[in-house]
Amino acid sequence: MGGIRNLESLFNPKTIAVVGASPTAGKISNIILKSLKHSSFSGKVYPINPRYKEVQGLKCFKSIADIGAQVDLAVFAIPAKTVPGALRDSEARLNVAVIVSGGFGETGEAGRALEKELKEIVSRTGVRVVGPNCMGIYYSFSGVDTFFIPEDRMKRPGKGGLSIVSQSGSFAVTAMDELAAEGAGAARIISYGNKADVNETDCLEFLIDDEQTTAVALYIESIEEGRRFVDVASRCAAKKPVMALKVGKSAVGMDAAHSHTGALAGRYEVYKAAFKKAGVIELSGYEDFLSACKALSVLKKTVAGRRVMIITDGGGMGVNIADACASLGLEVEPLPEKAKEQMSLLLPRFCSVSNPMDLTGSATDELFAEALEKTLDTDGYDLAIVAALWGPPALTDELPHLISEKAELADKPVIICSPGGVYTRAKTALFGKYGLPVFPSPESAARAASILCRGRRKA
Amino acid sequence: MVKRAIERIVKEALSLGERALVEPEAKEMLKLSSIPVPRFQVVKDVRAAVEAAESIGYPVVLKVVSADIIHKSDIGGVATGIKTREEIEHQWSKMLLRVADENPVAMIEGFMVEEQVPKGVEVIAGAIKDEQFGVVVMFGTGGVAVELMKDVSFRLAPLDRTEALEMIADVKGFPLLTGFRGDNIKDIFAIADVLVKLAEIVEKTDGLKELEINPLMVYDRGIMAVDARAQLG
After folding, report:
1. Listed residue (B201, B214, B203) closest to B6, CA to CA
2. Low-confidence ranges of chain A (pLDDT < 70)
3. Which of A69, A298, A335, B113 would be B52's cystine partner, CB 3.0–4.6 Å?
């Protein structure tokens, strides 16, 4: 296995060749070329196709060899049966190939033979291959983008600290689109498909020391190098949050007939055990995955405990959040005496000075800030959910800023729960601007809180 | 030394073409690893059974020993609470007939006469080799309905004591071990030690694929592996 060798070329190539570049709009190669031309990518882009002299205004080459220079990254968007030959002809001048073409191991006997050929080329020559049957790479910092869905259909997130490693391309690109819509950023996104060479563990190993990446989300269908994964994931999780969604949960046990252990140790249970061993946060499905991505794209870190402080100006919403927290195993402990005394002096008599804390309709920006400071200041809580309903007339656009200041001061994560209609939704971006993750319902906010608490717990 | 003795048990069974160990062999492995098992003797005839029972002391349990029978009690291959010589003779002939009736092709290697141990909280502890991830350890609340209730937790080996204690606390039935309804608190540390040892045995023994204790009887102080099975391969 190639480990992380040459993976930097994937993300920071000086030259990119698009093999099979076509002038026909809507073709995969055409979309990729267009994305690269319009992105912030500042290196050279070479269309490769013997049938054309020029594609999209760029000089087109017959082959990679024809360019006459070393190519860092080549994207192959040509029919599967022609890929091994094209790779063989160009590997000597190539660091990394992203093979987006389908029609390999996922399709049957003939496809499996083609994939085997790819693997042989990899092991014989040392060229690195991402894919086949993948969407490849998106790197917000360099503008490299091989995801072949046009930008007007699927938006790309801006710069951020979250990296996504996904076996499925459509899963990754959909998550990217949702993050972009939320204004959340991302760093490196890798769709690795059939993993003829580069697999999830290689990507994760690369991300351990990547300064741009502050958190990693994995979408996994299968892992082959299980022990290496546990080792690499442990090392990565020691530095930054690593989260994983493993799909195919109902796969049956390994050896049903013989023992209860065999019958009960389904594939998913084994993956769960592996995640636990490595300190990887287990995600349960798409919603969980998205919540995790949203929360960790801004918050950067998880927490050691699971005690949540809830502050709201709507009593009902507060209790609802408390219920949602309890059902996810989070603890909503009563206020410590000191914080209770301090808050009682500040708040009108009819406010509920407990947890959840209800500031009622007389809430102000300053009261929210005070409440957050006094409660997070104690060692009674690990994080807070603030549900600021925009009804109280005294609340202003200053609120997000004040909340983020107090969150920073306490060095504890604060999650915003902001249910509401047109006015409320227009305020969402304000929270985002100050690095506060916003969720639209008590359930989704509690879910995000629980994700932050699912990491390895300090002894 | 212990490792070698355990390997020898597995090697011998493998060389005979066996795919599983019979209960006395599996228990021998546990004993070698200092996991307590009830006192037992393997006998071939009824006179030896009576002698064994008298040397162990009544009450005893009589069990059929056969690599072909996976769930002994399902086919009448276990008789408990035997208190006299007459009872053991009676159970012996009854068991022979029942087993022959239920599973006529089973190769019967003999019978175990075993000390009847007191009732405790029944749990299950097992370890299995996984091709991708290595050894996986399981703990759960026990009994015959374990596959129905699925109150189990898993961890990857190697396992330390803290992880073992965590996986015990993970199951819903954990309160059964911590003084449920006025009962005494059970020896959770002894269970943790068993889990750590199972992980180690399966990890270090070539040819051993699974090792499982069910039930593992848990007392206020100490534990006892009442039944055990092992898969090879």
Report:
1. B201
2. 1, 251-263, 265, 456-459
3. B113
The answer to whether the CB of A130 falls within 8 A of the CB of A72 is: no
Residues contacting A131, CB < 8 A, separation 6+: A97, A98, A99, A100, A101, A192, A193, A194, A195, A196
H/E run at residue A429: helix A422-433
Chain B's closest residue to A224, CA to CA, is: B132
Cα–Cα distance, A278 to A242 (Å, whole number): 9
Residue of B nearest to A230 (CA): B133
Work out the minimum CA distance from A208 to partner chain B, whole angstroms: 21
CB contact under 8 A, A259 and B128: yes
* Token duo for residue A210: 């990547």
In terms of Cα–Cα distance, which of A366, A418, A373, A375 is closest to A396?
A366
| Closest approach of A144 to chain B, Cα-based (Å) | 33
Residues with Cβ within 8 Å of residue B50, at least 6 apart in sequence: B85, B88, B89
For tokens 């029942």, the residue is B98
Question: Measured between alpha carbons, how far is A135 from A145 in angstroms, rounded to an integer?
Answer: 9
| Nearest-Cα residue of chain B relative to residue A267 | B130
Q: What is the pLDDT of residue A171?
A: 95
**Pairs across A and B, CB distance < 8 A:** 85
- What is the Rg, in whole angstroms, of the alpha carbon atoms belonging to chain B? 18
- How many whole angstroms separate alpha carbon A249 and alpha carbon A237? 23
Q: What tokens does A362 get?
A: 């007389």
Q: What is the structure's pLDDT at A257? A: 44
DSSP symbols for A185-246: -BSEEEE-TT-SS--HHHHHHHHHT-SS-SEEEEEES--SSHHHHHHHHHHHHTTS-EEEEE
Cα dist. A165→A204, A353, B214 in Å? 8, 44, 40
Query: What backbone torsions phi and psi does residue A415 show, to the nearest 5 degrees?
Result: -110, 135
| Percent of chain A surpassing pLDDT 90 | 82
Residue A251 burial (CB < 10 Å; 0-12/13-18/19+)? Answer: middle
Minimal CA separation from B226 to chain A, in Å: 15
CB contact under 8 A, B155 and A276: yes
Contact A264 B162 (CB under 8 A): no
Residues of A in contact with B132 (CB under 8 A): 223-227, 270
Maximum Cα–Cα distance across chain A: 80
C-alpha distances out from residue B18 to A166, A278, B6, B54, Å: 43, 36, 16, 32
Whether residue B154 and residue A230 make contact (CB cut-off 8 A), yes or no, is no
Q: What is the dihedral of CA B153, B154, B155, B159, to 10 degrees?
A: 70
C-beta separation of B202 from B222 below 8 A: no
Arithmetic mean of pLDDT over chain A: 92
Percent of chain B with pLDDT over 90: 80
